[in-house]
Specification:
single chain; 187 residues; alpha+beta; elongated
Length: 187
């Protein structure tokens, strides 16, 4: 009878060990990539939070101080969104939104520009939502400009609204703007 050498490892044991270590390394590598992507996505959103807040404040100051009379879409190009907000006090706010920056001229004729960093503004379509409360005779108007941060899960049709620019207005039903559902070239 032939005696086997039991002092070392066999080739099969070595291959199985390498395969198991490779599987563990692949899972660890994927975990590190996912953690890195999550951190990047958070950084992109945080970097634009201050810019978003400034834009919203700039527009809301006019909406709070004047009575809305009309919102007009002057967009002639699919890459630029031009919104004109007019007030009963013969004032207006102009919003010019490009994919990487926004320029706003407020009712006091003060013009300001904000660059959108690590993200893309979607200027082709802005959804407008209205709610009417006839009992208290008020309505609310909200419009939302999509901003897509650089990640896999934030695209047109799959929008992460946390980084969008949302503008709200509350007014009397006598000032209601009917049939306003969308602004932009793709409406």
């Amino acid at each position: 009878m032939i005696k086997l050498n039991n002092k070392g490892t066999t080739l099969v044991e070595l291959i199985i060990s390498i395969v198991l270590i490779s599987v563990v390394i692949v899972f660890m590598f994927q975990l590190l990539i996912d953690l890195n992507n999550e951190e990047l996505n958070n950084d992109f959103a945080i970097n634009n939070q201050i810019i978003r807040a400034e834009i919203i404040k700039f527009i809301n100051e006019d909406l709070a101080n004047y009575t809305l009379s009309n919102i007009k879409d002057n967009s002639s190009n699919s890459n630029i969104l031009n919104i004109e907000i007019t007030y009963k006090e013969n004032k207006k706010t102009l919003i010019e939104a490009h994919q990487d920056y926004i320029v706003i001229t407020n009712a006091a004729n003060k013009k300001q520009r904000w660059d959108i960093k690590d993200a893309t503004l979607y200027p082709n379509k802005v959804f407008v939502y209205t709610t009417i409360n006839n009992t208290s005779k008020i309505y609310s108007l909200n419009f939302n400009m999509e901003i897509h941060t650089v990640n896999d899960n934030n695209t047109t049709g799959n929008n992460n609204i946390i980084d969008d620019i949302s503008i709200s207005y509350i007014g009397s039903t006598t000032d209601y703007l009917p049939n306003l559902t969308c602004l932009g070239h793709d409406c």
